[in-house]
Amino acid sequence: MAKFSLSQALLHRPQVDEVKLDATTEEDIRAYQEEDGFDPELEPKAVRVVPGPRDVRVRLGLTQKEFAEALHIPLATVRNWEQGRTVPDAPARALLTVVAREPEAAFAALGTGVVPDDLDETAGSPPSR
Fold first, then answer.
1. Residue 102 lies in a domain
2. What region holds the HTH cro/C1-type domain (predicted)?
């Protein structure tokens, strides 16, 4: 795959045949899908929504440092996720999903001893961390 800079890409814009594009019918699109190996009759699979790292952390009432320590990951990783520099890979997304759905079980399994703010059952006392 060739790599281009933005300026090179802007100089070499693809030529689009507007007439051909406008003349493309739904039947043509279906034929192209079948030609490419897609089944146009197949219903799309359900999308699994993975919670964002910041959303999970804030909902649990943890600081970035506390969240990183609880998950046994570097603080820089949490910061990079939250600032959009990187995205969680598949195992990290799975972990975030588990933490979002079952935080007490996840933190217990990780052995962190973290009890998120909104899950602390002892009213009036600060959460244990």
1. yes
2. 54-90
129 pLDDT above the threshold of 50: no
Burial class (CB within 10 angstroms; exposed 0-12, middle 13-18, buried 19+) of 59: middle
What is the number of domains present in the chain?
1
- The pLDDT, as a whole number, for residue 116 is 63
DSSP, residue by residue, the chain: -----HHHHHHTPPP--HHHHHH--HHHHHHHHHHTT--TTSPPPPPPPPPPHHHHHHHHT--HHHHHHHHT--HHHHHHHHTTSS---HHHHHHHHHHHH-HHHHHHHHT-----GGG--STTSPPP-
